[in-house]
Design a protein that fits this description.
Elements lengths: L1 H16 L5 H4 L23 H4 L1 E9 L5 E8 L7 E10 L6 E10 L2 H4 L2 E6 L2 E10 L4 E8 L2 E10 L6 H13 L7 E2 L8 H4 L2
Antiparallel strand pairs: 1-2, 1-8, 1-9, 2-3, 3-4, 5-6, 6-7, 7-8
Helix pairs in contact: 1-5
Length: 201
């Protein structure tokens, strides 16, 4: 499966050259992947460590390549409050060619599915399901997803650093191009110049 091969390449890139200060230790920490990556059909999910996952995450890349936002930062809590798992989102909305600072909070009930990294967002009749596929907690988190009315798969790559280095981006992009999905990747912007309303001067 081409998508699976590309995802393997993505993880190798992140583990081997994603974050320079962790390169030596990361070379030997290639994560275990599901044998197939069909987010809709597969039983993807695991009881993640909330404390380890907590903190700030930056969306580095996403599929499909839709121009709806930039500078997405997600704050994951280290505790559950009133049986709710609340994520604080900050980003620049680029819908209809705009550039608007946005803050919002999305909440999920702290039920079995959520505890296993499966999150559902409801927009009227539209339901989008996201699954935490794999994370090493300190460097990256990879999320896959799907909508109930669309066959198009969703992938999101989050990192602890605002921006990936050029070597990592080039390696992932080259692999994606080889598998015919390079044009589907949207690389997120997190530079201070672009994201000034979020990160300050």
């Amino acid at each position: 499966m081409e998508t699976q091969a590309f995802v393997v390449t993505l993880f190798v890139a992140l583990c081997c050259c994603g974050m320079p200060q962790r390169t030596e230790a990361a070379r030997f920490r290639i994560p275990t992947l599901p044998k197939q990556l069909n987010c809709r059909a597969d039983n993807i999910g695991f009881p993640f460590n909330l404390t380890a996952l907590s903190g700030y995450w930056y969306e580095a890349a996403r599929v499909p390549n839709v121009d709806v936002l930039e500078c997405l930062n997600v704050s994951v809590p280290d505790a559950i409050v009133e049986d709710r798992f609340a994520l604080d989102l900050r980003y620049i909305s680029t819908v209809n060619g705009g550039w608007h600072y946005t803050e919002e909070q999305v909440e999920f009930p702290w039920v079995n599915a959520t505890q296993y990294g499966i999150f559902q967002l409801h927009y009227g009749k539209i339901i989008v399901t996201y699954k935490l596929a794999v994370t090493d907690y300190t460097t990256f988190a990879f999320v896959c997803g799907y909508g109930n009315i669309s066959p198009i798969p969703i992938f999101k790559l989050f990192t602890r650093q605002r921006e990936l280095n050029r070597t990592t981006i080039a390696l992932i992009q080259t692999a994606a191009d080889q598998y015919g999905i390079g044009s589907q990747i949207a690389w997120e912007q997190h530079s201070l110049a672009k994201c000034k309303p979020l990160w300050g001067s």
